[in-house]
Amino acid sequence: MREQVHVFAPGSVGNLGPGLDILGLAIGGLGDAVRARRTAGRGIVVEEAGDPSLPTDPSRHASAIAAHAVLRAAGADFGLALRLEKGLPLSGGQGGSASSAVAGAVAANLLLDQPLPVEALLLAALESETVLSGRHADNIAPILLGGLVLIRSLDPLDVLRLPVPEGLLVVLAHPDRKLNTRDGRAALPREVSRDTALHQAAQVAAIVAAAYSGDLALLGRSIDDRIAEPARAPLLDGFLAAKRAALAAGALGCSISGSGPTAFAIVGSERQGEAVGAAMRRAYTEAEVSATIRVAAPDLIGARAL
Ligand code: HSE
User: Fold this and answer.
1) pLDDT per residue over 172-183, tens digit each?
2) Distance 16 CA to ligand 1 centre (A)
3) Best substitution site from 13, 20, 94, 227 to test ligand 1's pocket, by max atoms within 8 Å of Cβ?
4) What residues contact 191, with CB distance under 8 A and at least 6 apart?
5) Is the CB of 228 under 6 A from ligand 1?
6) DSSP secondary structure code for residue 18 in this structure
7) Which of 88, 143, 268, 284 is deepest in the core (most CB within 10 A)?
8) Would you say the CB of residue 181 lies under 6 angstroms from ligand 1?
9) Mean pLDDT, the chain, as a whole number?
């Protein structure tokens, strides 16, 4: 039986444009990692919160909430000491809290005598998201499973892993700003018109078609979000200029990653990614926002033990 584990979980682009709360893509490169150790007591102790601004209170810490939910679901008779290594930006729109939650859930699971099925891990991570940022699975599902995931239903939980088109690369432009998900969600409209709802549904359907056909151009032009993006763009200095610059530089599509402030663009090659990233950086600089750019491939594996 394992006494300790070290688990890595990637970040993600929630929504993938029009799929508000229902589509997400795991992104390679940066991620959060949790070291978990079994302890004799029943509770969870957060020994390292991952950042001075994150709480050590286990009822407010993403990894601890999810790990606790796993132990509770399994009826475990031990506790855990957790150390979070935070690789993703805080309140950055790259699935950071979801990554911490999934890493906590997977770490706790690996320390059980009889591990729980994947659905139980999703529910455990969803518990954390619900407490900390709002009930949505579009970050936790791809982070746990890898690749591109559609959340068909939350009640009951039904998530579908979609194929990831060959050659897909994502440019992430992370402005030096923070927007916590709760504030980003508060900006969302409570109602939308029928035309908007139907247009949005068509974009999500087209993304699913693009995933199966491997059509990157279709995927790119379906990144057309008329619900969240118009509501959130005013909160994100430089975003609209960066999007215009990305599309002018050859991006196939561009929108807000999760609730922002990170912007993402879809490209089909490293060279295109570099050009698009440089154009986005220039646009942010002109808006007096400094931005960190990276070009990343999708993470097809999801959370894993190191
Ligand atoms: N789907 C969520 C939102 C993602 O847009 O609020 C948050 O990262």
Assistant:
1) 999 998 888 888
2) 10
3) 20
4) none
5) yes
6) T
7) 143
8) yes
9) 97
In terms of domains, do 213 and 156 share one? Answer: no
Q: Assess whether 182 and 156 both reside in one domain.
A: no
Tokens linked to 92: 């950055």
Residue nearest atom 8 of ligand 1, based on CA coordinates: 258
Helix (H, G, I), strand (E, B) or coil at 282: helix
- Ligand 1: does its nearest atom lie under 6 Å from the Cβ of 60? no
Q: Which atom of ligand 1 is nearest to the CA of 21?
A: 1
For residue 14 and ligand 1, the question of a CB distance below 6 A is answered with yes
Is the CB of 232 inside a 6 Å radius of any atom of ligand 1?
no
Over residues 272-299, the mean pLDDT reads 98
- Residues whose CB is less than 8 angstroms from the CB of residue 164 and which lie 6 or more positions away in sequence, other chains included: 25, 147, 148, 211, 298, 300
Domain, as residue range, for 143: 4-162+300-305
Return the best residue to mutate from 12, 15, 128 for the ligand 1 pocket (most ligand atoms within 8 A of CB).
Answer: 15
Say what the pLDDT of residue 292 is.
97
CA distance 105 to 133: 17
Same domain, 9 and 156: yes
3-state secondary structure of 70: helix
Residue pLDDT, tens place only, 55-68: 999 999 999 999 99
Arithmetic mean of pLDDT, 162-181 = 95
Q: Which two tokens stand for residue 178?
A: 């923070």
**CATH number of the structural domain spanning residue 133:** 3.30.230.10
Q: For residues 186 and 151, state if they share a domain.
A: no
Whether 221 lines ligand 1, by a CB cut-off of 6 Å, is no
Number of domains in the chain: 2
Q: For 184-205, what is each residue's pLDDT tens digit?
A: 999 999 999 999 999 999 999 9
Which pLDDT does position 66 carry in this prediction? 98
User: Are the CB atoms for 245 and 293 separated by under 8 Å?
Assistant: no
